Amino acid sequence: MTTSPPSGSDAFERLHPKVQQWIWQQNWRELHEAQEAAIAPILAGDRDVLIAAATASGKTEAAFLPVCSVLTEQPDSAGFAAVYISPLKALINDQYGRLDQLCDHLGITVSRWHGDVATSSKSKLLDRPRGILLITPESLEAMFVLRGWKIRDFMASVRYLVIDELHSFIGTERGAQLQSLMHRLDLAARRRIPRIGLSATLGDMGKAADFLRPRAGDDVTVIVSSSDAQELRLQIRGYVQTAPTLDLRARAAHEALGEEVSADDVATGDRLAIADHLFTTLRGSHHLVFAGSRAAVEDYTDLLNRRCENARVPEEFVPHHGNLSKDIREHAEARLKDRTRPATAVCTSTLEMGIDIGSVTSIAQIGAPPSVAALRQRLGRSGRRGGPAILRLYVSEPEATPAIHPADELRAQLVQAIATIELLLQRWYEPPAAEALHLSTLTQQILSLIAQHGGITPADAYRTLCAQGPFRAVDSPTFATLLRDLAAADLIRQENDGLLLPAETGERLINHHTFYAAFAAPTEYRIVTEGRTLGSLPIEQPLPEGSLIIFAGRRWRILTIDTHAKLIEVTRASGGRPPRFTSTGPLVHDRIRTTMRRLYEEESTVPAYLDATAQSLLAEGRAAYRRLGLHDTPLVGYGNDTLLFPFRGDAIMTTLGLALHAHGVDVVRYGVALLISDTFPQAAAGLLADLAAEGVPDALALAALIPDKRVDKYDDVIGEELLTRSYAHRLNVTETQQSISALATTTDRTRAVNLDPPKAAVPPRQHRIGSLPYAVVDIETTCLDTRKARITEIAIIRLHPDGSKDRTYSTLVNPGRWPGPTHIHGLTEGELAAAPHFPQIAGDVAAMLDGAIVVAHNVRYDSGVLSTEFARVGYAPDNLMTLCTLNLARRFGPPATSHRLADCAAAEGLDHGTAHHAESDARACATLLQIYLERATAQGVQWFSELGVIGQLPARPWCPAPVSALARPRAMPE
């Protein structure tokens, strides 16, 4: 058989004859641009190479055709010859199938190593390590920890290190772990192993090269494919959110009677319309629908397959997300590859990466894309084999009611989607994230080094990980402080000769299977039916036996829940709702927000790719932008508050909010706006002018304002000083200062529009003081973000209308995740493990709140967290009547510089007890309320509205959950 090169390629001639023969057997007419360009530098074997191209452009072959040529030239030596690292087990399984075809022809062994590979297979591989090893970072970490003394034997012969989906690692804790592991492989091999990175195209490939080889990015050969240009057909479709046929209460009532509730009856109108369009448009071919979240995947898969059932046609829609079992995911992938029958996968970002699913006709994206780079990756799935790439983007906006918030009037989701498309057409992509300290991952790597070597000196650990390793932002004093923090947390101890060894807690940590991952994952239940595993469900949303869920695109009834084995047994059923999953989206880049501002102001330009509804929504958003005066000023008065619209990226928005908070005002994020509480526009303009003149406080000072800075897996063992320094790296003081200067200049010239918030249906003034009971609440939580926080302890003291005590309710609450600032509330995972979850006590809490004014010290936060927790259960109140003792203290308390609860109690001569103990805090708050009410009535105050009570009592019973009597109170301090 001839080995003539495709299209007469010179690079092709340099490949080994057997590799040439294999290429010819595949009937390839030519090599892709990146494949051609990568052959020479990889064959040289003396440099690092970074290959950037779109999904499905042949990056894997670009790396492995020359790698396998080198391995074929040389005899099979002891140890692995090449190591391929992937972020996904599914991607490893896919690449194994692709590489095995090539390597079987060449006589090269290909082996997989991850959590789903049998132990017996791993043992055989370690007895005779050969060829190409495909592995995840976590499995490689486990190899260092458990077989540290054998690492050199395994890796001494490695010729190449290939990292797939490199862009997914950059700027993350997992990425810092990967960099450390690559460096430790070099040390084990006692030479610099050439690295080959496979990446999507990024906005700054120089930073990607620096990530691939820290301190030597300039020496990396960067290959960026320019041949992925293709015809793009796209449309953005707009929708308006309308209420479902059945609201939450009606749904709960039907389910309580055991009646089936149709998915169509409880879906909002926009979701039904989107599902209808997807069903009509996508049937009959192969497509991907990126739904935005795992819950949305389940929801849309169910809605679409219901339409298949109603139309009496075969089901074409399959789910794909990370919580589904390997079998179900692989079934979805196989359906997409099968050209004999149509299939559409409704998925999260799991199919954004390079798993081989064949070509698809089109891509659908529900909601604004997470980033320009992610959208480009997804588009790479469509338009192959010379066809056009097709994108349909579905965006929903709130209904324009009298109660709509000004930020929602701007139709920001739609405008963000348009901005993302415009930047995509300009071929702009987000640059990699800025370098961080990654102290959590450094903690893991210190313990891993100790385990690998059986102990290590501080000097050797610093040299390995920081001085010569990837944690270059950590200097020697910082490293020493970190070691002291780890010793204080009982993770490490130091022998008399200086050797660092694991302490008792550290030993347990290293020996636990969760140690190998640099990121924290919630505890999950395995979902099983008839002995078959469907996938896993986070424990944060436990469901009672007999309840209905949607999972793996189908409806199930829960039969049993085994809390010890972490197992949920289910059977097929009708009805059901998708489970809730935790997810955090990427930060929106500054370029996207500044592009949004331009789109608002260029009113004569309407993109041709908008459908009629999207055009109408864009016109509404531009009209609101004009009506709010945002072309002249970023400030909009909103009742007693001010909305600030900077139109800057999330990092700048966070820094700006902290800078304003440092000047004594409360700031809350609302979409593209910052709400400055109890501050009129003129005062807000003064604050901006002061910040412009004085300068934004430095990042350390701003970070110190965050009470809970624990974000990453091992942050709970790191001291406050280092956590502050670590959090400071997340802020952007320089660009925030520039933004504030521009904002201050604008506010000098103009006058802000003032709006009145929607009026309550029942004015609070109708209630006299003494006519309603009180529910004094205190909660301890996992963080300060009301949308993300989970309650770890709650205490409620019910008071009669005259202020006398009625009853008390108090319990610890298992948040189903890391408990947050243990150093503040003193609660640990072990202490909370046996506590009830919030869904189990929702009825108890609702019974304490019903018919009462909710009182708290900073009630905006406490009521916000409570409402969010109830919403997760499906029983959110339509309103709450609230009263804040923090505000009462400012009016009726002694003059003070601080109005923290402990300080207010001390000012009144009260014995507060233990701060951040929910029942102690609730008692102090209740006593302060009684004092302030007496002073208010003595001054002639008669109505709750005069006290600052806002909201209204719920119009009807809102929580049908039963009282459980599962309370597990925390022991009161001595």
Automatic annotation (TrEMBL):
Gene Ontology molecular functions: ATP binding; ATP hydrolysis activity; DNA binding; exonuclease activity; helicase activity
InterPro entries registered for this protein in UniProt: ATP-dep_Helicase, DEAD/DEAH_box_helicase_dom, Helicase_ATP-bd, Helicase_C-like, P-loop_NTPase, Ribonucl_H, RNaseH-like_sf, RNaseH_sf
Record-linked SUPFAM superfamilies: P-loop containing nucleoside triphosphate hydrolases, Ribonuclease H-like
PANTHER family: ATP-DEPENDENT HELICASE LHR-RELATED, ATP-DEPENDENT HELICASE LHR-RELATED-RELATED
Pfam families referenced in this protein's UniProt entry, alphabetically: DEAD, Helicase_C, RNase_T
SMART domains the record matches: DEXDc, EXOIII, HELICc
PROSITE patterns given in the database record: HELICASE_ATP_BIND_1, HELICASE_CTER
Domain Helicase C-terminal residues, every copy: 274-439
Organism: Nonomuraea solani
Domain Helicase ATP-binding, residue spans: 40-220
Protein name as annotated: ATP-dependent helicase Lhr and Lhr-like helicase
Keywords: ATP-binding, Exonuclease, Helicase, Hydrolase, Nuclease, Nucleotide-binding
